[in-house]
Design goal:
The structure is a homodimer. The first copy, chain A, is α+β, with helices and mostly antiparallel strands. Chain A has helices at residues 25-38, 95-102; strands at residues 9-17, 43-50, 57-63, 66-73, 78-86, 106-114. A six-stranded antiparallel β-sheet of chain A has the order 2-3-4-5-1-6, covered by helices on one side.
């Protein structure tokens, strides 16, 4: 429930521009785990992959409350992060850890309510 | 590029209602892998988790071209699927495999262009 609306999960689509550490797997893993912890989410699985071409990183943290994912384009200074959380967690609580870690010059957060009762 | 717009990746947020097999890990894994293959994506990692309470499943397939994720709520007949693909893959090519597998009575596909050049 949020604002009186009933839905299954809150999904934030977070686009970061002018961001740092986009080719740094360790920094990215720390950022995702910090984000999960600050949203009081339970981590079930972590998988990160660094691409040889371009240096981009893809990472997914599967949570008991859904997932956090990231895909980075270091050559653009761009990262697409998703924070999808259901249950008692608030996805917005994950955002400050991402801002601290990646220090983007611009951030755009789009809020999607998944599974709004039809 | 799509319709003359330059962006990093096409992200489909697919909400399925009245769907079947939402507590069946094997059926869900097959559906996600079929979806990836039909979109000509390269699978890097697969992780599925079945929850003991409620029977819901969370699954993520990390692709060379981004990811496919699913979270199911069997008690609602609802699943939230994300198909995020960059490069030469077309995320829309993954949708028919999902429809075949889950046979939803209602499907809503929301198209998000991630990383539109600012």
């Amino acid at each position: 429930m949020r604002d009186g609306a009933r839905f299954a999960g809150l999904h934030l689509l977070i686009d970061l521009w002018g961001a740092r550490y986009l080719d740094d797997v360790d920094a990215i893993e720390s950022a995702l785990l910090d984000a999960a912890r600050e949203a009081h989410a339970t981590v079930l699985n972590v998988h990160l992959h660094k691409f040889l071409t371009g240096g981009g990183v893809s990472g997914v943290v599967v949570l008991a409350e859904s997932h956090i994912s990231i895909h980075t384009w270091p050559e653009l200074g761009f990262a697409a992060v998703d924070v999808f959380m259901c249950g008692d967690c608030d996805a917005f609580d994950a955002v400050p850890a991402l801002e601290r870690a990646f220090s983007p010059s611009r951030i755009h957060v789009d809020e999607q309510r998944r599974g709004l009762a039809p």
